[in-house]
Design brief:
This protein is of the alpha+beta class and 815 residues long. Strands 14, 15, 16, 17, 18, 19 and 20 form a 7-stranded mixed β-sheet that branches. It has a 6-stranded mixed barrel with strand order 3-4-9-6-8-7.
Length: 815
């Protein structure tokens, strides 16, 4: 019986909506926009913040870093081994070095493979047993043996998924002695987007790498079960304090900190995602308010039908159920169409991210998102249908007769409810508009920030020289090989038509390579206490013309030049902020410093110049902690090649690559982008947030305008007789228009007042996400209020004009 009742109600609801297609289409479209927008944003939140990481119990994984001068950096292998023994909250710790590159050859086409250098226990710590093979022997971590674990993707793509590759040698950087020990599970490419893992090989052959102050690795630790974040921080603080006391020369001023595994990937995006989810919920609330208004108007027109059904024996619960079923059908239909819209929106938003995310962050509509869409649709249907159902399911027959006689319900509780809903819509729309204004202005300020260099017309690409080919037992000979290669590449690329200059650097500003870590900085003659306050800095090896190519201004002294060779005294240039921090009230020129806390006196560098500050990590950061040394004095094999051009930079991509091949036919180039593209990638959160907020604000404006139009139009239709009487008694057209527009503006002012207060309060939540703009910027608040008032006037003009054209004779006969 119950099932038959449900089916009967369902059939009746479908027939009802088929008879009024325009009404149904408007409601379904409104809900589709709100539900689709929520589905799209939730798919981002689900991918980045909710979906489990592909590791065992990822909430127990943290990265261990050091801190000096409020700047984070790496730790040493000595410190890591001591943490294993002395810090009780860790189950185990593995060391890793990100950012390595290898040129693979011998099996198919040569290609550049990103790699992670790590200890053998990395896979045990992150909890991902190898499905094929095993990790290299533990002894390889401290020996000159090269064990490799390849990713599942590389195994299938390069080796055809052949299990027989285990135990075979792989040629990397022209060296055919990298033994493949295992294959990682699918989607395991820690820390992100790598192709292989190699034994770390920090051993006695390189004594500078195994010292306490040689901080060259990160630690990835698994916490013991039940350990809290506070316990970990307390243990690390105790450990750091103890090491500062026991090893004052190496650990003074060094503390240790941890970052959760998820925050390692999405910490910067997390606040933006939560704000967007809150904003899109406002859009859905506005859509719901509109739908409630429409359904309420529809229900009021059916009061006599419902009264008749009640008189014939239908219970109030049956009437409410019927109306809720009608609302649910509309909401589920809107949800289905909204899901289709969400697929398109997700693809569009994903292209706006434009940065390399880990493979497990796959922004898609999966089962969780589908469940979310279904639940939101049902909840929306219940919310939208409940108020009209409660309003009309208990008819007052006397009231119906009375209202029918006077032809007006303007003062009824139902009309007051409809007006209250419009006030809510206006308030919510104003909050969204203020948020959009703040986000967009913040993004504009970021784009106008002085970066300390010129990003326009700058082509960038990476070159990583193979170890085997450019190796030599003699350090000077090895350096000479690398320097000769880059000298030829710079000469050839600088001579290309359309190129103004060419340079190389090991650390490109705003490249997103934050995993490379920073270096210790020590000034000659500093006391132990002074050294403790030194920050970590960016250590850059550059070609002499790097500053001119990048457009970095010289403030004191001189730039590096071609006379700064490995036969001359080592010299360096530092940034203005670093000079002011390390030499307050002094002239920095002629002072000496060294990078790292290594004992060799040969590492002292004389300051010959000071340049303007450069934003290296983030546009919104202070920046300017940089040291520059010539590549002609200290060579490096892994660099960025920069071309300052007079033409569109990407048009030189192939020509520049050919010039590299002309110097070495086996050398690859990779990661080719313009500097402006790289900068855009560093602020993708702000770009996406600003764009989405604009979209939401536009939807909110449209929905609020529709809501105002609907209420004023309905009010006019219910007051036809009253308006006719007014006009018969001498009211002019302008008087009627003034009355109707006044009603609309009254609702708008009420909603605007509530919205301004709410926006002022809620804008505090996004204050930390803004750059160069106050969360209470009066111009934005005033501009938004005026815009909303204009929309309200436009939305209410049509019904006001219609009211002003009322024929008094027809109106007096109106029932």
């Amino acid at each position: 019986m119950l099932g038959e009742t449900w089916l009967s109600d369902l059939r009746f609801a479908v027939r009802l909506f088929v008879k009024r297609p325009i009404f149904s289409i408007i409601i379904v479209s409104t809900l589709a926009l709100g539900i689709g927008a929520n589905t799209a944003i939730f798919s981002f939140v689900n991918a980045m913040l909710l979906r489990p990481l592909p590791y065992k119990e990822p909430d127990r994984l943290v990265r261990i870093e050091s801190l000096q001068g409020n700047e984070s950096g790496r730790i040493s292998m000595v410190e890591l081994e001591e943490m294993k023994q002395e810090v009780a909250v860790f189950e185990d710790i593995a060391a890793y070095i990100p950012g390595a590159q290898y040129n693979a050859s011998g099996d198919g086409q040569p290609e550049e493979l990103p790699a992670t250098l790590c200890t053998h226990n990395l896979f045990d710590v992150i909890g991902t047993p190898l499905p094929h093979g095993e990790a290299w022997p533990e002894s390889y971590d401290k020996e000159r043996n090269f064990g490799v674990v390849i990713t599942d993707d590389l195994w299938k793509r390069r080796f055809g998924g052949d299990p027989g590759v285990l135990g075979q040698k792989m040629t990397l950087d022209a060296a055919p002695f990298y033994t493949i020990y295992g294959v990682a599970p699918p989607n395991i490419n820690f820390p992100s987007n790598v192709a292989l893992f190699r034994s770390i090989n920090i051993n006695a052959n390189y004594p500078n790498l195994i010292k306490r102050n040689a901080r060259n690795v990160y630690g990835i630790a698994r916490l013991k079960a039940g350990v809290s974040v506070e316990q970990v921080r307390a243990e690390l603080a105790t450990f750091g304090s103890r090491k500062s006391q026991d090893f004052a020369n190496d650990n003074a001023g060094i503390t240790f900190t941890m970052t959760s595994m998820r925050d390692l990937y999405v910490a910067d995006a997390k606040p933006f995602l939560w704000v967007l989810l809150g904003a899109v919920a406002f859009v859905l609330l506005i859509a719901c308010a509109n739908v409630v208004n429409l359904l309420l108007a529809r229900a009021l027109s059916r009061e006599k039908e419902i009264a008749v059904r009640r008189a014939l024996g239908a219970t109030r619960s049956q009437i409410i159920m019927q109306l809720l079923i009608e609302s649910l059908i509309l909401a589920l239909t809107g949800g289905f169409i909204g899901l289709a819209l969400a697929y398109w929106w997700v693809g569009l938003l994903a292209t706006m991210v434009r940065t390399d995310l880990p493979t497990w962050i796959n922004i898609e509509i999966d089962g969780v998102v589908l469940t979310f869409t279904f639940l939101v649709s049902v909840l929306t249907g219940v919310i939208a249908g409940l108020a009209p159902a409660l309003q009309v399911s208990k008819p007052n027959f006397n009231e119906l007769l009375k209202e029918g006689s006077k032809g007006s319900s303007a003062g009824s509780p139902r009309q007051r409810l409809r007006k209250a809903l419009v006030v809510v819509e206006v308030a919510l729309a104003l909050v969204l508009l203020v948020g959009a204004g703040l986000m967009v202005q913040s993004f504009r300020q970021l784009q106008k920030t002085d970066l300390g260099f010129r990003p326009d017309n700058l082509l960038t690409m990476r070159i990583a020289l193979p170890w085997r080919k450019y190796n030599d037992t003699d350090v000077n000979a090895r350096r000479a090989k690398m320097q000769n290669f880059f000298k030829q590449v710079l000469e050839r690329t600088a001579a290309l038509p359309g190129v103004e200059s060419a340079a190389v650097t090991t650390n490109l500003p705003l490249s997103g390579e934050t995993e490379n870590g920073k270096a210790n900085f020590t000034v000659e003659g500093q006391s132990a206490d002074e050294q403790q306050r030194n920050p970590y800095i960016n250590d850059l090896l550059i070609s002499p013309n790097y500053f001119q190519t990048m457009g970095i201004a010289l403030l004191r002294g001189r730039y590096l030049n071609d006379f700064d060779t490995d036969q001359a005294e080592r010299v360096g240039v530092i940034s203005q902020r670093l000079a002011e921090l390390m030499f307050p009230g002094q002239a920095p020129l002629g002072k000496r410093y060294k990078i790292g806390n290594l004992d060799s006196q040969a590492n002292w560098t004389k300051i010959v110049g000071v340049v303007s500050n450069v934003k290296h990590e983030q546009i919104g950061s202070e920046g300017g902690l940089d040291s520059y040394v010539s590549q002609n004095q200290v060579a490096d094999s892994n660099v960025y090649l920069l071309l300052r051009t007079r033409i569109e930079p990407m048009s030189l991509e192939q020509a520049a690559t050919r010039e590299v091949w002309a110097v070495d036919s086996e050398q690859s180039t990779f990661d080719i982008q313009t500097m402006e593209q790289r900068i855009a990638d560093t602020i993708w959160q702000q770009r996406v947030s600003g764009t989405v907020f604009i979209l939401f604000a536009f939807l909110a404006l449209v929905l609020a305008g529709v809501g105002i139009y609907g209420v004023i139009s309905y009010s006019v239709s219910q007051r036809v007789r009253e308006i006719g009487i007014r006009m018969a008694l001498g009211a002019q057209t302008r008087d009627v228009m003034k009355m109707v527009l006044g009603e609309a503006m009254q609702l708008t002012l009420m909603g605007g007042a509530v919205g301004l207060v709410a926006a002022f309060i809620l804008s505090r939540l996004i204050a930390s996400l803004l750059y160069g703009v106050s969360a209470s910027d009066p111009l934005i608040f005033l501009g938004v209020a005026l815009l909303l008032a204009m929309i309200a006037l436009v939305a209410s003009y049509v019904p006001a004009r219609r009211a002003a054209r009322t024929d008094p004779m027809i109106a007096l006969r109106y029932e």
